[in-house]
Amino acid sequence: MRKLSLFGLCLAVLATPAAAQSLGAAGGGEIPVDIRLFGPPDPNVRKASAIVNGSIITDLDVEHRLALVIAASGGRIGEDEKNRLRVQVLRNLIDERLQILEAEQHDVSVDPAEVEAAFARVAQNFNQTPEEFAKFLKSSGSSADTLKSQIKAEMSWSRVLRRRIAPFVTIGDEEVDAVIQKLEASKGQEEYRISEIFLSATAENEAAVRNTAEQILKQVRSGASFVAYARQFSEASTAAVGGDLGYVMPEQLPAPLQEVVKNLPVGQISDPIRVPGGFSIIAVSDKRKILGPDPLDSVLTIKQVIVPLNRNAPEAELQRLVERMTTEASRGGGCGRADALAQSLGGRVDEPEPQKLREFPQGLIPHLERLQVGEATRPFGTEEDARVIILCGRDDAEEAKLPTYDEVYAQLNEERMSMMARRYLRDLRRDAIIDYR
């Protein structure tokens, strides 16, 4: 068999139908329409993973978006998991492309300056400049353009919804009044700060979606960012804000979620839960009493005694230091004795600004909540130092007020918009022409 020349392959790929016919005549045989290129693929050529209503999603688009997910997980994703997530990433990119195409169909545009400003805000969340953040994304195997594309899709879709759905959302006065009356009747009961990841599912793909949800849960419980996974994978309208639903009463949630939320400890994440339309993963970050004084809103004034640790010291020596700190701190004396305590232990005193109890590290909150003024916590710390906190004062929170009519209206409107947005996207998927490659 004769070797195919590079020049011949280029002709076969680039020729028009008419040119192909003339080449076939000159060569003594027609060139087939469906050809297969021999040899390794060109790594500089972007291959299509899917074509959505004529718009191409390349394999590079998929890999860059997947790299964002991996970066959010701290790189703790194996090859099998990558392959599963790659399928979900492609599905998300298809949805985004449908949203952008729908925005173009209705002359909805997003100023590039708005996208750049949003990108800068994300970078600021990482304490980086946009330039530094772009380098970080590139070093992670992704790119700034990938994240900006996602931001543009979110902005475009939000504006489409405001134009196409918002005018048809109606909330009656009686609905708002009913919610306010229910809140009054529920005074003293608990409400929860909820975040969600919602994946839609049908009877046909239920098993596959459940598997995806379980893999996401595995990564989040291993330390990956819930917010990042919600932004990348959740199909609820809250995806743009990292899945945050705010404070809700269990009765405001779908029935399958109500008991789960009540029994889920603060800081924990639920297993995937089958709900109408798909699966939900729920995280509870806080809880409080409805219309009652919330202990977590109490403002604490503290002093912190910080004692440096010698990393090379024997374990027994470190243990003796901790025991001594425990004994000295338990003697009392309040914040007035903090300087003497620090001096006796070879440490220093830190006096941070007063802050709400809920703003302290999650592991410290239960201990600080039980402290009386003048008492100290048990020692805690890091590899660098050991610490105790002395409570100098506590300003109890005031009773919460009923939400205003406008606040309740806005919440109901958001819930209605979210439901209609999912239906809108479902219809776009149903009518789309998608060619998988």
Structural overview:
This protein is α+β, with helices and mostly antiparallel strands and 437 residues long. It has four domains: 1-39, no CATH class; 48-163, Porin chaperone SurA, peptide-binding domain (Triger factor/SurA peptide-binding fold); 188-290, Chitinase A, domain 3; 295-395, Roll (Chitinase A, domain 3), CATH 3.10.50. Helix content is 48%, strand content 16%. The chain is built from 15 helices and twelve strands. It has helices at 6-14, 17-27, 59-72, 79-105, 112-125, 130-139, 144-164, 173-185, 206-221, 226-233, 255-263, 315-329, 338-345, 365-370, 405-431, and strands at 48-52, 55-58, 190-200, 244-248, 273-275, 278-289, 299-308, 348-350, 355-356, 380-381, 385-395, 434-436. The strands form three sheets. Strands 7, 8, 9, 10 and 11 form a five-stranded antiparallel beta sheet that branches. A four-stranded antiparallel beta sheet has the order 4-3-6-5, with helices on both faces. The protein has a three-stranded antiparallel beta sheet with strand order 2-1-12. Helix 3 (59-72) packs across helix 4 and helix 5 packs across helix 7 (144-164). The longest helix is centred in the N-terminal third of the chain and has 27 residues, at 79-105. It is globular. The protein starts with 5 loop residues before the first helix and ends with a strand.
Whole-number total of structural domains: 4
Average pLDDT, rounded to a whole number, is: 82
CATH architecture descriptor name of the largest domain: Orthogonal Bundle
Indicate the CATH class of the largest domain: Mainly Alpha
Total helix count?
A: 15
CATH homologous superfamily title of the largest domain: Porin chaperone SurA, peptide-binding domain
By secondary-structure content and strand pairing, the structural class works out as alpha+beta
Q: What name is given to the CATH topology of the largest domain?
A: Triger factor/SurA peptide-binding fold
